[in-house]
Amino acid sequence: MSTQHVAWTADLVRALPNDGKRYEVLDGELFVSPAPSFNHQRVLQSLFRLLDHWVRRHELGEAFIAPAEVEFSPRRLLQPDLFIIPTTPGTRPRAFRDVGTLLLVVEIQSPNTARADRTIKRDIFQDERVPEYWIVDPHGRVIERWTPDDRRPEILSNSIRWQPTLRVLPVEIDLPHFFADALD
Predict the structure, then answer these.
(1) What is the DSSP string of 150-175?
(2) Fewer CB near the terminus (10 Å): N or C of the chain?
(3) Where are the domains of the chain?
């Protein structure tokens, strides 16, 4: 009996039933992850509140959290934990295709997603030239920062600064304080 390999696309994933799991297409491969843990969500919510407030105050864009789709191509449909799109002229975008670019992508690491976050997804975000990709490790209380041309991440445990444009001062996050506030 032969087994055919399915080349997954964004449309095939959208046809799946809504069962509470996150479905992504990573270069034609289906990636399924279960619902996140409470600590994952606590860290995500804290980071979202902080970054969303900052980008809106400086009129740089909008922050979104999963489930929300980022479709680079039919073979690349991702749902990052958090992502920031730039401000677009005119009408607010209704879908990612209306923006087509990202300022920042953040994944909160969990045991079920760590390998994909650090390999396949990182490769995709670097290939798509996302300016910064953060992998937040709640257990280790560190953030790995990747840029498109990095071969190795910058590992940050004290603070992280993010400055998507030189027209505003960077946002700086005190990481020990951030993780203590989110998790303790």
Answers:
(1) -SSPEEESSEEEE-S-TTSPPEEEEH
(2) N
(3) 36-69+77-183
